[in-house]
Amino acid sequence: MESCMRRHRTTQASSSLPLESIDFFNKLTRLACLLHDCGHSSFSHQFSKVPSIAAMLGTSEPFQRLWAQANISDENMAALYPQRPKKLEHEHYSVRCAWEILLAPNSEQTPYSALDVTALMETTTGAVTPEFSRHAELIWPLLSGSTETPKQPEKHIVRLLRLIVSGEIDADRADYMLRDGFHSSVTIGGFNLDHLLKNLHVGWDPESDWMGLAITPKGLGALEDFVYSRHQMYRKVYGHKTSIGFDWLLRQAMEEVIGQPDVGEYVKACLTDIDEFCYLTDNYFWEQFRLLARKQPNSYSQMMINRVRPHHLHTEESMGTVDQEPIKMMLAERHDLQPEQVVCCALKARFSKIKGAYEDIKVMQKGSNPERTLPQYVRIGEVSNFFHKFEDETIAHFYRKP
């Protein structure tokens, strides 16, 4: 947040800076960044891909029960979610957890409204309090470089901060891509985060009523490296045959233990009660794997406990959808197996979304008109064709079913 507000500071005396508002938005954004993924349950994204759990989350019942005992007024509830979602994602749990954390009766009271924090998180409408709106008006000249404040500046600022919390160049991705690359020893496709942040600014174009992230021409290369790094991490790490194979094995083991009545009922109870949700941890499932493995030595749970890697047969990469059945037949014949003994696990990377998402990140250029005080902003596609090169990819790995 601080790096994005750097522009125009040098033109103002320090005494005229809205220090209170700067502190307000910095801390509010940090809170939202820290809480925006707290709704992830056991084993992160793999949790909701387990068929039985996906069925539990595929109705509006968990949402209604999650909020039934919440300390929230009808007005705030309507502001957050005018319509109840028909399907729950981890982002819905993040909002509910954040609300519970910020309003917990035994916790230290925070000066930041739960409504303002959750406004910066996904799935909400972005409704804010009058306090947020007051700070938005105070900080507007600093953010925009303009003395003219539009109607409802808070809407522009909410949209801007949501890009930082959960956008194409958000704090989460900037962190986990470098961390995952380091721990997986994948050095290809790295990017210079410091250089990227130094050249990333807040952009405001009153003519098109646009406020968002803007990159300088000097920082465009760092932004391209950032996108390329993400592309390579998907291809080399997240889509690796061992990673995908263990993801499949994990889902099978979770489905296996959830099939037990006591476990299935407990998981369902945790998904509909925020006080119980925090107990649905990785350790809980590891213990269930151990218990089932002792009863059933040939189970998926036993494979997870002993880290038995699925036997990899073949990899197929395609710019479209991989036709699995002919490949399964071919592999079954080659390895003297039945077709049903060949399992396919596919990762669909929607890289084509990069083009549309990055069109909203504009390039900040010096204006040719000397009378214009604000910079000019051009679509990133007019300056670089790099972001148009990405297309959806499917990485499909085939394994012998244990």
TrEMBL record:
User: Which SUPFAM superfamilies does this entry report, sorted A to Z?
Assistant: HD-domain/PDEase-like (SSF109604)
What top-level branch of life does the organism fall under? Bacteria
Q: Which Gene Ontology BP annotations are present?
A: dGTP catabolic process
- The species this protein was found in: Hahella chejuensis (strain KCTC 2396)
Q: Which PANTHER family match?
A: DEOXYNUCLEOSIDE TRIPHOSPHATE TRIPHOSPHOHYDROLASE (PTHR11373), DEOXYNUCLEOSIDE TRIPHOSPHATE TRIPHOSPHOHYDROLASE SAMHD1 (PTHR11373:SF4)
Keyword Hydrolase present in the record's keywords: the answer is: yes
Keywords on this record?
Hydrolase
Taxonomy of the source species: Bacteria, Pseudomonadati, Pseudomonadota, Gammaproteobacteria, Oceanospirillales
Care to name a GO molecular-function term for this sequence?
A: dGTPase activity
Q: What is this protein called?
A: HD superfamily phosphohydrolase
InterPro entries recorded: dGTPase-like
